[in-house]
Design a protein that fits this description.
The chain is of the alpha/beta class. The chain is built from 11 helices and 10 strands.
């Protein structure tokens, strides 16, 4: 079944009457959940059932990476920040790769049993020690270590039954600015980016199911942020890197997206550049503006989006499985 091109957020722990009505619009193809939408596993299960009752095919996603980016905590295993795997890799690569796979499986499995399709992970940015918004979310500053750990992480997601979304293409770690609150500019030339930050995306393009570009401008390559740039998304990502997965925009309410204009203009710029789905979070009026634009333009649905629906066979009694026990013990060793 076709999936619409807009992903938006919800206000609270259950659907409002406005949100129930909104979800009947087929242009809305995804819901992203935040900490404000979570109280307990039981409450989350009821919320997801509400959503599925209206739109069974909709994609339900969350930013649930571990460390400081883990939306659901009480009742879920606390996953450590990914930098711990990079540190372990320098001492014991075999154990680090096993840990990456097990942590990813655990993270994905605990979401899948709740009927959540996606966690937007792994982070494939390099930690150049410049970007606080990336920082310990990155595996390492070494692109080859990021490739190895990223590959093991993707394997863990796939083993659980979840699609993997790499971010933030072509790399957010080379700027000080946080694209949530400003418009970062990375002044490095193409060769510098290609030989460092682009390496994980190039080498993992064949195994990733989706990618999310950065709201960062790389003026030596193009004067538009990567998420609004056909040079980055079509010429480089699709053509040079042969990536055929889904491209999600990063949140269009972030300051880094403001260069494109109003919300309708941001959505148009992202979709024209090559995004399959756009995210609008924490700004309902902006989301409604995008929705009105999409209905007016009759946006053609991407045929790639349905590939991301999960088909997991995981049992709800996840904690009874030996895989879950082994992964939780691995977390304890790393914490």
């Amino acid at each position: 079944m076709p999936i619409g091109a807009l992903m938006l957020d919800l206000d609270g722990l259950s659907l409002t009457s406005e949100e129930c009505q909104l979800l009947t619009d087929n242009q809305i193809g995804g819901i992203i959940l935040f900490s404000r939408n979570y109280q307990s596993p039981k409450q989350l299960s009821l919320l997801i059932a509400e959503i599925r009752n209206i739109r069974p095919e909709i994609l339900i996603a969350v930013d649930h990476e571990g460390g400081r980016v883990q939306r659901f905590q009480e009742g879920f295993t606390r996953i450590p920040a990914m930098c711990c795997l990079g540190e372990l890799y320098r001492q014991n690569p075999t154990q680090a790769l096993l840990s990456a796979r097990q942590l990813a499986w655990l993270l994905a499995a605990e979401l899948l049993v709740m009927d959540i399709d996606l966690s937007f992970a792994p982070v494939l940015d390099l930690d150049h020690t410049l970007s606080q918004v990336i920082g310990d979310r990155a595996f390492s500053d070494d692109p080859e270590i990021v490739v190895k750990l990223g590959s093991a992480f993707i394997d863990g997601f796939h083993a659980a039954g979840m699609a993997a979304t790499g971010k933030h293409f072509p790399g957010h770690g080379g700027v000080v600015g946080d694209s949530h609150t400003e418009i970062p500019v990375d002044s490095r030339n193409w060769l510098e980016i290609e030989c460092a930050d682009l390496v994980p995306f190039r080498q993992l393009a064949g195994s990733l199911d989706a990618l999310m570009p950065a709201h960062v401008i790389y003026p030596e390559v193009d004067d538009r942020p990567a998420g609004f740039s056909a040079v980055w998304l079509k010429d480089i990502l699709r053509e040079k890197l042969c990536f055929d997965g889904v491209i999600f925009s990063d949140d269009l309410s972030m300051e880094g997206a403001s260069v494109a204009g109003g919300f309708a203009e941001r959505a148009q710029a992202a979709l024209t550049a090559g995004c399959d789905m756009v995210l609008v979070c924490n700004d309902r009026s902006g989301a409604l503006e995008v929705l009105e634009y999409m209905n007016r333009q009759k946006i053609v649905y991407s045929q790639r989006l349905p590939r991301l629906k999960h088909h997991s066979k995981l049992n709800a009694n996840l904690a009874m499985s030996p895989e879950w026990t082994a992964a939780v013990n691995r977390v304890r060793l790393l914490s």
